[in-house]
Amino acid sequence: MNYLENILRGTSADSVSIFIAIIIMSAFIVALILGKMNLGRDFVQYAPTLLTTLGIFGTFFGIVLGLLDFNQANIEESIPPLLAGLKTAFITSLIGIFASLVLKVLSTIPVFQAKKSERMANKATPEDILSAMESQVDEVKALKDALIGNEESTLFGQLKILRGDINDNSKNSRKVIQEQADIEYARFQEQASAEAVRFDEFSDKLWLKMQDFTDAISKSATEQIIDALKQVISDFNHNLTEQFGDNFKQLNEAVLLLVRWQEDYKAQLEEMKKQYELGVEAITSTESSITVISEHSKAIPESMSELKEIMIVCRHQISDLESHLNAFSNMRDKAVEAVPEIQNHIETVVKDISKSVDIANEHYTNMLSETDKGIKNVVQDITKSIDTVNEHYMDILSKTDEGIQSVSDILVGSAEIVNKKIDLASTEFMNNTARTNESLQNSSDYLQEQAGIMKQNLENSVRELNSTMRSMIETLVKDTSEMNSTMTTANQNLVLETSNIRDVISKSVDKLQQRLSDVIDDVATQQINQAKRTFDAMEDQVRNQVGLTGEAVDSQLKLIDESMQQEINRVITEMGRALTQVTGKFVEDYVKLTQAMNEIVNERAA
């Protein structure tokens, strides 16, 4: 690249301009001489383009020479060589374009054109002309056979075959689309059945989890309480059986009562389980009601189709009325046009008949006007009825849409509310459980503390049995009363907390049942809407594909017909031009032949 730049820097702009100008003028002179001598026609025809190309080559060469010495850091010193290069560029392009224009102009002047030799025309005979015309006729027949022959290889036969292929392709495409639609429908049914199976499995798993949850709650509560009481009772029995037999008997009775209460609580839990089963049955009944609603909703498209048929009948009636109106208007126009002519003819015959014709004309015009009014009234009534039907139909659709939207909004709101309530219930349940555990832990701690105090008191009483027996008995009575009150309060608190837990659990079960019913409703509506949207989309897609295929086939047939018509017109035009040229050439040759024969006859006569 540097070597090439050094070579270009060694050349000057003026020398390049002179060299390219010499090449352009040489090509111009050679093309002019060859055109005059009728030699090198390809070079002569390409000469204008060659001259223009040489000028453009000089343009870019001059621009390159100007830009080689251009320095951005020193623009003032770089401008003169740049202008010199641009000067070379413009001069060479101007010379090339000017030479091309001059050559084109000179090629149209007869002086610089090649002389036509007339030796071939003088040697032509009538037999040659006849054979040439016969060969042209044969070629025209061959062209006709190639265009509209009976064989399949002709253009017309190929067009027929192409049309048949297009029809076959359209049928195959429709079959493929139908098969794809069937496959998609079967796939959708499989997905729907799979979703139903998944939903059943989910409901079964949910039922098992809820049953396990209730069993775990009941077992954990009862087992913890029983274990705590057993531990306390064993401690008391181990330490204080001999001295406090009566008190422990009372405590045993209280424990028995507590065990009975636990059995009652278990029975209540079983009743809650039965209520939960009833809730599940209610959910199944709601599911059956949803299926009934979906079955009833299927009647809506049928009523829509019947309404569509009514609209079609109304449209047919309107079209019939319009045709009758057109017929009546034509009859009226013809009658109006015929009346003046009849009147002119009858006025020349008799005046009395003209009066009767005027009366008949007035009667006909009144009758036609009344008929037009009646027909217009009928059309207005029909249009009003159609408008009312459309308005009623649109109101039904709008109300249906509003109802569906309101139901969906209500379902969404209820779902949110149920979620919030379930969250609150779960938090309350956890808080109540925590409080219950705390109260039980406090009671057990309190019992342990009291047991420690009593143990210490017993040890003190054994050591000081002789001196402080009465005080020990009083202390024992006080402690026993305090223990009884403590157990009573603990029992009451336990009963209250248990009732609260039962209420919370019942509320949670009711809320869960409501949430499950709402979820089932939402899932059912979503499945129905999804199925409807899927079928609508599939139907629209099939219709669009069939319409596009029909439009493509029609457009292809139109393009084929247009191209065939254009090709036939072009062939006929070319045949006419060829026949015109042949006829003109035949006339010229015939005139020359007659002149030559006259000259020969005159020479022989002379």
Automatic annotation (TrEMBL):
It comes from the Bacteria. The chain crosses the membrane at residues 16-34, 46-68, 88-112. It comes from Photobacterium phosphoreum. Keywords: Membrane, Transmembrane, Transmembrane helix. This is MotA/TolQ/ExbB proton channel domain-containing protein.
